[in-house]
Amino acid sequence: MQNSTLIFIPDISGFTNFVNKTAIEHSRHITSELLEIIINSNNLDLVISEIEGDAVLFYKNDNIPSFEKVFEQAKEMFLNFHTHLKNIEETNVCQCGACRTASNLSLKFITHLGETNEVNVKDFKKLIGSDLILAHRLLKNSIESKEYLLLSNKYCKIHSSENSNLDEWIKIKQNTEEVESFGKVSTKYIDFKPLLKKVSEHSKKTKVKKYNEIPDVFTEINAPILLVHSTLIDANAKYNYVPCIKKIATNDKINRINSSHTCMFDNLEIHFVTKNNTVKKENIIYSEEAEFTNGFSFVTDYSLQERDGKTELSVYFSKSENENNRINSFYGKLKNYIMLKFILRNNKKAIRSFKDYCEKTYKESLK
Fold first, then answer.
1. pLDDT tens digits for 20-29?
2. In 3-state terms, what secondary structure has residue 27?
3. Given the DSSP bridges, would you call strands 297-307 and 310-319 parallel, antiparallel or unpaired?
4. Whole-angstrom distance, CA of residue 263 vs CA of residue 272
5. What is the pLDDT of residues 137-160, one digit of tens each?
6. Contacts of 186 (CB under 8 A, 6+ apart)
7. 256 DSSP 8-state letter
8. Residues with Cβ < 8 Å from 306, sequence gap 6 or more?
9. pLDDT band at 330 (very low <50, low <70, confident <90, very high)
10. Residues 344, 342: Cα–Cα separation, whole Å
11. Class of domain 3-198
12. Which residues contact 237 (CB under 8 A, 6 or more apart)?
């Protein structure tokens, strides 16, 4: 049975093709995050027919929403989408192509009204019909803007945009597309670029340390800085260079500011939280705070400097602010001193293993 159906497709674009394994994995994860943001912003009780790569196919068969409601729905999805991108930009640690360019992603919406059929595929209802094909073909059009709400003439005839009580910035423009198998198709669209001004601002206030003193550990690694950095921020890579580690627990697929993981040993657990990542030309400073099960906590700052294709790694250990505020007694300070010496001794071994692992990984990548 055919239904008069609202077809609504939010579509993400902007990722280029990556050959680096990490970039491919992270682009998929970022896209998954953004699709979830879009789905969670569904206030019109739209039905999901399927997720199509970087897009969601929504539809609604009854109580077709008005132009104002469709606009407000697209607007909310758009603002939530870009607010999340802003958050990724402000908390980004990873330097892979996907993470560095995530802020360039864009979002457009196709809205069409047409006849469709529903077919059952296992536990899902799949939408079929020529109008569905038309809606998908409208994704590729001649509109210069990358971010917009496009409305087909079929939808606008029933739900007019005239006399709509919308924001002053909104300009509804006419458009005609030559669509394969459909001929000339009249549409209207609203450029969403002005909406970017309304995206929530995130403030990232990080104190950047200056390291003039002698580092606690220094080594030169025969590998590029981005390879060393990507290894350093990968929690699971610690299996390859941290002695006696038994298990690593993490819920974060991409390391960002405030991401955490826990390293488990025979009689000890250390909980790590990413605190800072500053990138300046050929220098990267990465910081993480660690807390032992006995409550002792410290900060490790890694300063990476690239010279002639190699990476100079300087490591600095210090008590965390929480530790400074927590213990003031003589015995407490003595305990802290002993713990830092213990950490320094064991981390020197780990850094040597880290250097060997990075160089091995780099040699293998050249084969």
1. 788 889 999 9
2. helix
3. antiparallel
4. 8
5. 999 999 999 999 999 999 998 877
6. 152, 153, 174, 175, 176
7. B
8. 224, 225, 282, 283, 312
9. very low
10. 5
11. alpha beta
12. 231, 357
Distances in Å between the alpha carbon of 42 and those of 25, 78, 164, 165? 26, 11, 22, 21
**Helices and strands in the chain: count of H runs, count of E runs:** 8, 15
- Give the burial class of 353: count Cβ atoms within 10 A of its Cβ; 0-12 exposed, 13-18 middle, 19 or more buried: middle
User: Packing angle between helix 225-232 and helix 330-366, nearest 10 degrees?
Assistant: 130
Inform me whether the pLDDT recorded for 323 exceeds 60.
no
Single pTM value for the model = 0.86
Sorted by where each begins, the domain ranges of the chain are 3-198, 217-366
CA trace torsion 77, 80, 81, 83 (10° rounding) = 160
How many angstroms separate the Cα of 340 from the Cα of each of 46, 203, 235, 301, 323? Answer: 56, 33, 22, 14, 12
pLDDT band at 342 (very low <50, low <70, confident <90, very high): low
Question: Alpha carbon of 224 to those of 12, 120, 231, 346, 348: distances in Å?
Answer: 32, 52, 11, 25, 21
Distance CA 274, CA 261 (A): 9
What is the rounded distance in angstroms from the CA atom of residue 120 to the CA atom of residue 61? 16
The span from the CA of 232 to the CA of 246, in Å, is: 18
CB-based contacts of 235, cutoff 8 Å, min separation 6: 248, 250, 252, 255, 261, 272
Listed in sequence order, the DSSP H helices in 277-329 are 321-326
Q: Which residue type is seen at 24?
A: I
Are 189 and 151 in contact by the 8 Å Cβ rule? The answer is yes
pLDDT above 70 coverage of the chain, percent: 86
**To which CATH superfamily is domain 217-366 assigned?**
START domain (3.30.530.20)
